[in-house]
């Protein structure tokens, strides 16, 4: 996304709600007069300043671009989209108009009429949603993950005080219940959209609970992100002494780019 906020034409076959939201996001980006990277940084800094959790308002550059280009079938969460709206409201000139937040939120809700998010981390919950799933989404762990063998009993409630990402405990519960669809949805969401510190915390917490396949899957998704975000994730992992996971992420990033069309 360039600093001039130039966009390609939207797909004429986009559903009306998806098109309306894309056009609204384009307007907000233009009013901000910043690159996608800079907007993401401003939203992150704003969330730190007002004391909210960073994940509540984080919009990565890649997610912002997908929204503006109508490539995202799932709706964004309300908090980061509203934060983008407030940023545009602050930066617009007096003679410029801006669509109302209510109009934007209606378009967002039209893409997902039901509340389909996991209460723990905000990720989409496929066991309860009815919307169409995005095409070409890889399922990383469906074949590998399975319930804990009965002879082992439930996963021990150990080391919870060391969990910097409490949702890891929910993943362990979903794994024990065999709810692989929900697990895949959450790890895909965290790996592709979570802020760098959340990914590092998620990987560390999953390792603590011996959820190694899930940690590896999160890193696999994270390897497809843009270079700057990968560097930030690497930095966060190294801060937590996750050197082996840093190497895994680097390997995934290299593989992702070697198989992507140039």
Summed up:
The chain is mostly helical and 262 residues long. It is built from twelve helices and no strands. 56% of the residues lie in helices and 0% in strands.
Element string (H = helix, E = strand): HHHHHHHHHHHH
Strand content: under 5%
Q: Please, how many helices? A: 12
Structural class: mainly alpha
Mind telling me the C-alpha Rg? 19 Å
- Outline, from the CA principal axes? globular
Q: What helical percentage do the residues reach?
A: 55-70%
Straight-line distance between termini: 18 Å
Low-confidence stretches: 113-121, 125-156
Nearest-integer average pLDDT: 77
Count of discrete structural domains: 2
Biggest sheet statistics? none
Number of strands: 0
Give an account of the 3D structure:
The chain is an all-alpha fold. The chain folds into two domains: 16-111, no CATH class; 150-259, no CATH class. The protein is built from twelve helices and no strands. The chain has helices at residues 16-32, 36-49, 54-57, 61-68, 78-91, 101-111, 167-176, 180-193, 196-208, 212-222, 227-239, 243-259. The protein is globular, with a radius of gyration of 19 Å. The chain starts with 15 loop residues before the first helix and ends with a helix. The model is unreliable at 113-121 and 125-156 (pLDDT under 50).
How is the secondary structure organized here?
Blueprint: H1 16-32, H2 36-49, H3 54-57, H4 61-68, H5 78-91, H6 101-111, H7 167-176, H8 180-193, H9 196-208, H10 212-222, H11 227-239, H12 243-259
